[in-house]
Amino acid sequence: MNGQDITLYTQINGRYDFTFIGNTMNTAENNLTAGLVTGTSSSAQLNLSPDDTVIKAFLYWSGSGDGDFEVDLNGTIMTPERTFSHSRISGVNQTFTYFSAFKDITSFIQTNGNGDYTLSDLDISAYEVYHKQISTNFAGWAILIIYENSNLPLNQINVYDGLQGVPSNLSIDLTNLYVIDNNNATAGFIAWEGDISLATETFAINGTVISNASNPINNVFNGTNSITGATDLYNMDLDIYDIENYIQIGNTSANITLSSYQDFIMINTVVTKLNSQLPDATITIDDYQLACNNRNIPVSFTVYNVNSTEILAANTPIAFYADGIVVGSTQTQNPIPIGGNESGNTIITIPNTIPSNFILTAVVDDLGNGTGVVTELVETNNSYSTQIELFISPTYNILPPSISCNLGFTRGIFDFSNYEEEVKTNPFHLVTFHETYDDALNNINPILNTSSYEAITTPKEIFIRIENENNCVSITSFLLQVENCPPIIYNAISPNNDNLNDTFFIDGLRDIFIHFQLEIYNRWGKLLWLGNNDKPDWDGYVADGIGTKTAPDGTYYYILYLNDPSYPEPINGYLYLSK
Hints:
Layout: E1 4-14, E2 16-24, E3 42-46, E4 53-64, E5 71-73, E6 76-78, E7 82-89, E8 95-104, H1 106-112, E9 115-120, H2 125-132, E10 139-148, E11 155-166, E12 169-174, E13 181-192, E14 201-205, E15 208-210, E16 236-242, E17 254-260, E18 265-275, E19 282-288, E20 296-305, E21 317-322, E22 325-331, E23 340-349, E24 357-364, E25 383-389, E26 402-405, E27 412-414, H3 419-422, E28 430-434, H4 437-442, E29 453-455, E30 460-467, E31 473-483, E32 488-489, E33 492-493, E34 506-507, E35 517-521, E36 527-532, E37 554-561, E38 571-577
Parallel strand pairs: 26-31, 33-38
Antiparallel strand pairs: 1-11, 2-10, 3-9, 4-8, 4-10, 5-6, 5-9, 7-8, 11-18, 12-17, 13-16, 13-18, 14-15, 14-17, 19-20, 20-23, 21-22, 21-24, 24-25, 27-29, 28-30, 30-31, 32-34, 35-36, 35-37, 37-38
């Protein structure tokens, strides 16, 4: 045997009560000789008082077989929002199936109001003969109406549904209750397949077997409507029982036990009405403001008392948790009426021990240790959580100095275009280069030419601005530094005043190796010329020459002392002079 267990579908609170209307399609109790369903249409009348306002209306229809999921109610096609099914194996080892369907028709009933309701086109004829073998041919419908009346006390209405069969004993736990006053407490059923002739079933609440005027203590599922007194709802029951003597103040749950030792019963819907004048505090985090590298977070929130039957008192405590650690607290300022709400603001501080990515939870009616001070209708809906990631300035990689050759007096041309990618730890961060810290901070005057940037003097600090998707900024820097690169020696000289190689030119020497000394010798080792940074390049002139002052064509030998710690050894070689 299988089906869907009866569980809580909805809970509403207010000056509410409930009733049922509905009817069967059967013309008699089903049995082996006369149990066929002869019609596909039946009617029932809704007759609320003028002071009653429909709050909810739920249509259920059910029958033997796999299901008819399109019916007509007063000329309007109805298709289900939810369906239920049940099956059982008979004594002859045959499987028999049953179905139920549900639709919320609140607006339909609110529009049409009191009067006759006719449900038609509920056709199970394809399954009738099949089910007649075990006398379970049935079809019927019911509407649960929850209505408001200002003269009623504040009640809690719980609707439980499913499709659960009663083989011999069935136990159903009704949860999410809170009984503050048991006066006029009631419980109602929509049940299918009961027979008046089979007095073999009982209904007990919290262990006590009960009955009412329409339902004898040993035959509670007998085809009756205890609201209208009808006794001809063949194979279905719409009954409401007083349970005030069987449920205690403070109860948060109740147990219903059904037994049937001959008749096969299916429970579709259970409804309870309990006097319950209590608030129901809930909370939402509406907004929060994050600032870069700031663990103080302004939070906007709203406390609600919507699904309630009493005012929520002022000064109801509110606690805030970050990954389960208390990080802030506040309280409501004013009494919050039934159906009302109150918005508030607070600032919470996230400790450094909490990671930047955490879950922020707001809990109303919480002293900061999980303890509440308000008794509520529902004690399990007081929290609201959201994921937060703090805005943190981007991380970055430390860059080494950018090194270039000294072009003289520490001037250099630098290519640091690759530093844009090397400094980032996230490829989506934005990087700009600046000459001053203030320019980087204010994001002005960026360096646009990073592949051939000229620094007149070095070392020079270049500032880098790194910005992430949250507009948080980090600023770092690196140095531009020059080194004295080896000079390039052009070892040919032709001092003929044609402006081509007229002097012994050494590229990268002057204004760089400012303490250099250059010696030029002839091939016999005689020193002909001694130069330094204060003298011009050698043009072949020989101070001690005999006759001519210009050295003759030939091969000469030079020794270049750079006088630089990076180049302790002199550079020597040959140069060729020709006029």
